[in-house]
Amino acid sequence: MGKVICPWDLITNFVTDAFVGYGVPKEDAEICTDVLLESDRRGIESHGCNRFKPIYLDRIKAGIQKPVTEFEIIRETPTTAVVDGHDGMGQVISHRAMQMAIDKAKEYGMGMVAVRNSCHYGIAGYYATMATKQGCIGITGTNARPSVAPTFGVDGMFGTNPLTIGIPTDEEFDFVIDCATSITQNGKIEYYERIGEDVHPGTIIGRDGKQLEGDAGAALKKIRNGEAALTTLGGIGEALGGYKGYGYAMVIELLSAILQDGDYGKALDGKDENGNIRPYHLGHFFIAIDTEHFLGEDLTRKKAGEIVRSVRNSTKAPGCDRIYTAGEKEWDVWQERKDSGVPINESVQKELVEIRDELGLTQYKFPWE
User: Fold this and answer.
1) Of 70, 177, 276, 355, whose CB count within 10 A is highest?
2) Using CA atoms in the order 87, 90, 93, 99, what is the torsion angle rounded to 10 degrees?
């Protein structure tokens, strides 16, 4: 059967009702749904519907993520805050934390909120875009379960740790760079497993220090049990600059733990000393810079637009007809999908049917049925 297109209104209403069925309050469920489906709107399928059941619903059911979010402000100043999310919904915690940073920036020029004890927050670009839509530069990062090896190491010591920055432009889409500091991320390997694609060479290192190849499912199991790890941007060793990805990954690890006294590294593996599952206790940070406190939003957008267009209009390499800037490909995907829906692969189709039947949401009938 392959992929089937599911209309946006259908998948949006269903995912929201499913979150509610798992105990998430309606207003929070709408935020979780918006973050989740923003991945699919941008073509980042590794973080969209593919992760709905295993990363969110299954963790709620297992008791390691709380459907009702307690957002506790531990400390606050006019420009900063430290928040404890108490293992609630990562999207809800992060949406509120980024808006806090934006509100502070609007008043004082800059704002930063550091979060501890959160859960997976979806695509980081969502929160950077919250800032750009409101005329701010937005910066966010998060740590994650340890699966990435440092340069010259083979242990998974930190997460895929995205460094994400959004800058408002005068174009239809803002400049938003949202990518892991590893070559690839766990979600992409999970996606490869679902569609039957092998791992890409150079993206995973084994205990012997050599690259791992072949079946994505087998590679994922090795990463989970410590027999392999993802590689940082630049790859294995230093020849192609692997130390650069390693260094930036460490920046995110530090900013996701030191300001909020949060967990880090191996403590984020979701297991206690007896091997039993437990909450992940992730840390995030959110920074907003208000452009009006400099020379104004209009000038900022105009200048940023000029810069990105100058790059896109530069000389193309032979055989290439287009140079992209960050956010452009995602915008193109949205133009293709906005009037149709989200493509759902066979394994996710089965999961959505199971969720519907489990919750008795009989009002929903999917296109593949």
Assistant:
1) 355
2) 160
